[in-house]
Design a protein that fits this description.
mainly beta
Length: 158
């Protein structure tokens, strides 16, 4: 179905129907960035070397050889036709994403700047997001992650 998000403020105020592609506060981050929603999309294809070369898309990020994927949302997302992902061939870590509009143009870029280990698993520690056409870059730093799947059985927080 269509994802439905509810934003709950510290004072308990609720905003229903928050869109995945809407910004978080005044930042260039979106709720989709924070949830990594596109990692669960099923319409995904790997771009082969010929297509990468024809479109001028690099297959390396941060000096790392990558598999480049394009994922399409399962339901329409306003202003978003697909997300391109660079996955490190050696570690399997996500290094970069780009959001594409209906014409296939890049509108936003997100870079994983730093990784760290949490309970024996690699997790992103620092992200940078840039909306094309602006000079502003939003930085997000994750200090700690707690969830039932990681350790204590308590809810997740970042």
């Amino acid at each position: 179905g269509v994802p439905r998000l509810t934003l709950v403020e510290a004072d308990g105020t609720r905003t229903e129907g928050v869109r995945l592609n809407s910004p978080v506060g005044e930042s260039d981050l979106t709720w989709m960035d924070l949830a990594f929603d596109y990692l669960w999309w099923t319409d995904v294809r790997r771009l082969d070397e010929a297509e990468l070369e024809a479109k001028g898309i690099p297959s390396r990020q941060n000096s790392r050889a990558c598999v480049v994927l394009e994922a399409k949302p399962p339901t329409p997302v306003q202003g978003l036709a697909a997300v391109r992902l660079w996955v490190d061939k050696g570690s399997g870590n996500l290094l970069q994403t780009e959001q594409l509009d209906a014409q296939g143009r890049t509108t936003r870029q997100m870079y994983v700047q730093r990784l760290g280990r949490e309970e024996g698993r690699w997790v992103p520690r620092e992200f940078r997001v840039r909306r094309l056409g602006t000079e502003r870059v939003t930085k997000l730093t994750v200090r700690s992650i707690r969830s039932a799947s990681f350790s204590t059985g308590e809810g997740a927080d970042a």
